[in-house]
Every structure is written in structure tokens, then in C-alpha cells.
């Protein structure tokens, strides 16, 4: 298990969010993975199982973009990228009832990666608002636009954790990471996101502690 505690010393209550990124580049959207409304002078602790990975799919309220809500289509399939011979791949298919996940299996070519594979059972139009997702500790964390006949890779060895203050709640897509420090035309005006802070764990440590200042900076304790 890992955890991070955040003490809000900004002067007012804030919606503090935790999200992850896997350095995959364009096309991968980080979701608000966990969030909490934290009153001033209150300490909140986020905790998670860093090995509890899942794969799955879901839908967004409109084609994938920053600021849209992702809803899981079915329960994620449990996968084990860090276990020898553990399942690390998931097929996603389509029939008259809609999209569905197949049975997860072991793919020896993926190393520390996790993979979702779609087939030709659906069209681009069928998948207009369907997205495939990486789950961690039960919650969706990273999503990509679903397409037919495509392989999607998540590199679990590159996962990093970040804190931010935002008006978005759990399950909403954030702007791409490289856009967050500065406002961009690609970031809708209705979204507010403070400069994210990468969480740093000391060697062998499983917990970290931060204070949110009155300039919305997360300072390590």
C-alpha cells in the first residue's frame, strides 16, 4: 500500500485531486483518479494498492477530450503485470448488446506493460464515445479513445503520481500533462487546474506528506 497526506493551509477549502501519468505521450488522458474536498487546516490522506491493476472500457459523455466524465462500462478485469505468468492482456469486443470485455490472459511479449486489444467486431462510429482504461486500486486512472482492430499499451513501470487543485471531480478527464503548467487554447475555460506536483517517495518509503500553501503550491514536509 502507498499513501500521501495533504494538509490544506491555503486559507479556504479546496478540491484536491490525485492523478497518475505513465509518460506514454499524446492520446492518453489522465482522469481525476481520487479527489476530496478538504477544509482549511485539515489533513486528508489518499491511499491505494499500487499493485492492484485492472483493465477495462467505458464511455464518455462526448468524444474524449479534457473535462469529460468517464463511466465504466463493466467491472474492470484484474491483471498482474508484476507477477510471473500473471494475466496482463485483455480483449475488448462488440456484439448486438454492445461492448464487452473478454477473458484476461498472459502475453509474454508485454514485459511490464499491460495491453488491451480490440478486434474488427465494431466500427469507428460504434466507438465514438467508447474508451479503454487502465484501473488502479479499483478506480479508472488513464483512458484512451477506443478504436477497432487496435492494440493499446500501458507501461506500468513508468507510472508517476501527481497532486493538483481542480474544479473537476473524480472520473473527469484532465488536460494533457504538458499543458497543465500554462493555460492553453486546448484547455477549456471551464476547467481550473493548478500546477501539478509530482509525488516523490523516499527510497523504500510507502508514504509521503505535503502541505498546500496559500499560493496553491504543494510543499513536501
Could you please describe the fold and organization of this structure?
The protein is globular. The strands form four sheets. Strands 3, 6, 7, 8, 12 and 13 form a six-stranded antiparallel beta sheet that branches. The protein has 221 residues and is mainly β. The chain is built from no helices and 18 strands. A hairpin with a 5-residue loop joins β17 (207-212) and β18 (218-220). It starts with a strand and ends with a strand. The protein has one domain (2-220). The model is unreliable at 179-185 (pLDDT under 50).
Structural key phrases:
mainly beta, 6-stranded antiparallel β-sheet, 221 residues
Outline:
With 221 residues, the chain is mainly beta.
Which secondary structure elements does this structure contain, and how are they paired or packed?
Blueprint: E1 2-8, E2 14-21, E3 29-30, E4 34-38, E5 43-48, E6 53-60, E7 70-72, E8 77-79, E9 89-95, E10 98-101, E11 113-118, E12 130-136, E13 139-145, E14 151-155, E15 160-165, E16 197-198, E17 207-212, E18 218-220
Share of helix, binned:
under 10%
Order of helices and strands: EEEEEEEEEEEEEEEEEE
The residue ranges in which pLDDT falls below 50 over 5 or more consecutive positions are: 179-185
Overall radius of gyration: 18 Å
Termini gap: 20 Å
- Beta-sheet strand percentage? 35-45%
The major sheet is characterized as: 6 strands, antiparallel
What count of domains describes the coordinates?
A: 1
Approximate shape: globular
Structural class: mainly beta
How many runs of DSSP E, i.e. beta strands?
18
Question: What count of helical segments does DSSP give?
Answer: 0
User: Kindly state the mean pLDDT as a whole number?
Assistant: 92
Amino acid at each position: 500500500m502507498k499513501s500521501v497526506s495533504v494538509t490544506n493551509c491555503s486559507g479556504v477549502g479546496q478540491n484536491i485531486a490525485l492523478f497518475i501519468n505513465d509518460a506514454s505521450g499524446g492520446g492518453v488522458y489522465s482522469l481525476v483518479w481520487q479527489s476530496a474536498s478538504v477544509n482549511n487546516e485539515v489533513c486528508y490522506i489518499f491511499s491505494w494498492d499500487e499493485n492492484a491493476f485492472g483493465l477495462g472500457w467505458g464511455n464518455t459523455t462526448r468524444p474524449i477530450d479534457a473535462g469529460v466524465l468517464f463511466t465504466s462500462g463493466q467491472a474492470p478485469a484484474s491483471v498482474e503485470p508484476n507477477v510471473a505468468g500473471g494475466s496482463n492482456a485483455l480483449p475488448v469486443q462488440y456484439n448486438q448488446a454492445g461492448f464487452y470485455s473478454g477473458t484476461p490472459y498472459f502475453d509474454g511479449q508485454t514485459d511490464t506493460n499491460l495491453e488491451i486489444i480490440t478486434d474488427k467486431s465494431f466500427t469507428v462510429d460504434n466507438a465514438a464515445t467508447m474508451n479503454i482504461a487502465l484501473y488502479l486500486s479499483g478506480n479508472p486512472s488513464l483512458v484512451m479513445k477506443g478504436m477497432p482492430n487496435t492494440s493499446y499499451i500501458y507501461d506500468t513501470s513508468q507510472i508517476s503520481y501527481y497532486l493538483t487543485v481542480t474544479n473537476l471531480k473524480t472520473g473527469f478527464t484532465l488536460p494533457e500533462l504538458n499543458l497543465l503548467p500554462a493555460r492553453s487554447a486546448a484547455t477549456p475555460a471551464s476547467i481550473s487546474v493548478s500546477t501539478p506536483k509530482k509525488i516523490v517517495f523516499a527510497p523504500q518509503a510507502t508514504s509521503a506528506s505535503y502541505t498546500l500553501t496559500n499560493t496553491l503550491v504543494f510543499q513536501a514536509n
